[in-house]
Amino acid sequence: MLNILVVDDLALNRRLLTVMLEQQGYRVYTAENGLVALNLLEEHTIDIVLLDVIMPVMDGFETAAIIKERFSQVYLPIIFITSLEDEASFERCLSVGGDDFLHKPFQEVILNAKIKAHSRIRNLSQKAREQNLQLEYHQNQVDREHEIVEHIFNNALENQQSFPKHLDFHLSPAAMFNGDMFLVAQSPLGSLYCMLGDFTGHGLAAAVGALPASRVFYTMVSKGMSVSDIAAEINSVLGKLLPGHMFCAATIIELSSTGKSISAWLGGLPDTYIINQSGEVIRTLESQHMALGILEEDEFERALIHIEVEDTCRIVMATDGIIETTSPHDEYFGEHRFKKVLASKPAISSEQVLERVNKFARGNKQQDDLSLVLLNCLAMSEPEQKSEPLSALPFNFSLSLNSKQIKSTDPVLEVVDVISKVAGLNAHRANIFLILSEAYNNALDHGVLGLDSEVKNQEDGFLIYYQQREEALANLTDALIIIDIRYCPEELALYFTVCDSGNGFSKDQANQQSLAREHGRGLCLLGEVASKVTFNSAGNQVEIYYQLTASSTSSH
Question: Where in the numbering of this chain does the Response regulatory domain appear (predicted)?
């Protein structure tokens, strides 16, 4: 039932309108002037106001203006009841908020038609108001939830600003939440770990994977785990938590405490570059693995790239949002333009690179998250934290592998797991893993299998090399690799000996290595991590001395 307010100073007019309206089933309220009308509007829900123009105390013009000001949230139609005929009066009625006119004497048919027309508009206005209130409520809920989630994210993704000398980075989300993730932490031995990840899509849905991934990352770095361990564990956690269509392309890098070497796991992100002081690319690291969260644990590939670097080098990591930024002509920013920008200015900053990217886009809406990390290969300061006391008990660990075992197993991870359980050694896990993996793979590839790394210098050389490796491994017979590990608590040292049944190699080749080469730096890395590396005269046995104190390790 519509509630109609009749405002007229003449009692006869009020009575006449009341009878006509009540006959149509409307509830009618009456007022003799504008002041009484405003009080009734405060007390009752009125749907339509029939308002006389000329009245004592407060006339229709003044009343209409106040009604429109006070009751503007929902359309409240004002139909002026007037005997005036001049255009100026009509114009003033509209200017103060009038919506329609009704001339005296009243015609019942026209009155009913106008009321029905304006009641329909009021109903639509009320529905729109209700919907707006619901939207406002839900928006407030979403804003509150986003505020909570943003607080959690800001506390979860810690340490990003803790290494200003080493890191220059820029994260620019396409939505409120970033589907890209950048994690940074320092291990107990001083190595700097960085992870740049790009989850499927962008916004909150893409960002949810950052929380479990970050917890795994920080926990494992604090325990001195290797890059491959971290990648494997994050892959396992994301595989269990995320739906099948979600995954995380990622690059995980460990910069040694001396700043002289890096270990990298690359899965699905665009190429990582090593650039010199001038910004020229001197080494390109291509993705070797599938993104995290796709493969099962038994399918996951742990292989790392180990590289020596100079203190003038910078590592450049970026998500695909950079190279896939488009211009108004639908042209990609691309890898070639990205490299050109990096070399356009010595020590270029991430902000300057992003300025060039945005300039190229020329106002095009950002379609994906844009993330760029520039890592300076500088020595790290020693972390201020207590390490677990080293065991006071000496031990020896020896392992002999025949051809069958060499074909069917990769012993490095299992050996590292065993050694890491000794008190105090888990903090050195990453270095122990690097030492064993480099020494064992050198013994297998170049000693037992007799492969020549020079093949890698050819076009598609890596593919040819690994095809040769797979074929040689399948045909392997009568081979032996011996791993011997000795822990001396008095010296706080580990001694590693890896011996193979192969023909050995020329030590001169091991000394002819440079950063520009795509291979052959593994033995140099052993010298970077270990205190001493020696070979027998035949070249088929390596002895490695590793000092367990963080300060001693960081001096090499």
Answer: 3-119
